[in-house]
Design a protein that fits this description.
Blueprint lengths: L8 H5 L2 E2 H6 L5 H4 L4 E5 L2 E4 L6 H9 L7 E2 L1 H7 L11 E6 L10 E6 L6 E4 L2 E4 L1 H8 L6 H11 L5 H10 L6 H10 L7 H12 L6 E7 L5 E9 L4 E5 L7 H16 L3 E5 L1 H6 L1 H14 L5
Parallel strand pairs: 5-6, 11-12
Antiparallel strand pairs: 1-3, 2-3, 4-5, 7-8, 9-10, 10-11
Length: about 300
């Protein structure tokens, strides 16, 4: 019976350089070609039982980074606990100008100035700091840039004043105008990307900015509900309804909550992803029509 290779635990749970594993005698080149190992990138392998999630890909890419480079953008946000990624998204990498990283379909490389203060590590992986991550993502067009800032601010990974200070210090960088606009539109209280998108639909169509996460109380001052967005003067609430609201228990809770809001004198408009993404004009028309019925503008 063939002897099973004595594989160090590190090789079972994280990507590794094949050449290094061969050089230190952990594996042979023949073993690397066997069914136990999966080749992810040039010279980068992982045990076949390891999950191929984005974290694994970040670990793999980190092994190829040139000096001064780091996981950045939406991949850095993912490592910091903010998942903005689409399915099978490539790993975003920030590389200092003057250095190069071989192109690969699993990589999205951005070449930029990377001061040492913008870099840190996460579980041993070189990564841009939360502040630099926000600086980079906020320089992308709306709504993505604002969605990213809201999510990072919500997790208290940075503060808006600190980001504004960095914007001032780096006036003239590419995309800085977009970042200034994103800072003006950002809302740390926003609880989901779709809630952010709903707020942007309202504001970008010329309506006043609604209050985020407004607490509604009855005439006796008792808490009734916290609504996604609100025009308190009109007692008008705007709510984003995700698919989870269709579940029986959520539906019953939502119905009781809606009745309580109505009893407190509030009007509630509820919108879905289809409204936000495909028919924003209808959202605005609904708000304006209700405001007129209530005898005022939002």
């Amino acid at each position: 019976m063939a002897r099973r290779p004595n594989v160090p635990p590190r090789l079972r749970f994280a990507p590794f350089r094949g050449s290094a594993a061969v050089a230190n005698g952990a594996l042979s080149r023949g073993m690397l070609r066997g069914r136990s190992w999966r080749r992810l990138l040039p010279d980068i392998y992982v045990h076949v039982d390891s999950p191929l999630d984005h974290r694994t890909w970040c670990d793999a890419v980190a092994l190829l980074l040139p000096r001064g480079a780091a996981i950045g953008g939406s991949s850095a946000a993912y490592l910091w606990g903010v998942d903005l990624l689409s399915r099978d998204a490539p790993v975003a990498v920030s590389v200092p100008r003057g250095r190069r990283l071989t192109a690969h379909p699993r990589l999205h490389v951005t070449y930029s100035t990377l001061p040492p203060a913008d870099l840190t590590t996460f579980a041993g992986i070189p990564v841009t700091t939360p502040l630099r991550t926000a600086f980079d993502l906020g320089r992308t067009p709306r709504p993505g840039g604002v969605v990213a800032l809201d999510a990072l601010l919500r997790r208290r990974l940075l503060t808006l004043p600190a980001l504004r200070t960095l914007v001032t210090a780096r006036d003239g960088w590419p995309g800085i105008r977009l970042l200034r606009q994103a800072c003006d539109l950002a809302e740390p209280l926003s609880e989901s990307p779709m809630e952010t998108r709903l707020r942007l639909v309202v504001v970008e169509h010329g309506l006043p900015r609604p209050v985020a996460q407004h607490e509604v109380r009855d005439r006796q001052g008792r808490f009734v509900a916290r609504v996604d967005l609100a025009y308190p003067r009109l007692r008008l609430a705007l709510e984003y309804e995700g698919d989870h609201h269709r579940e029986r228990r959520a539906f019953r809770h939502d119905l009781a909550r809606l009745n309580a809001l109505r009893a407190a004198g509030w009007t509630v408009l509820r919108f879905t992803a289809d409204d936000v993404l495909h028919d924003p004009g209808r959202i605005v028309r609904n708000i304006v029509d209700v405001a007129r019925t209530l005898g005022a503008r939002p």
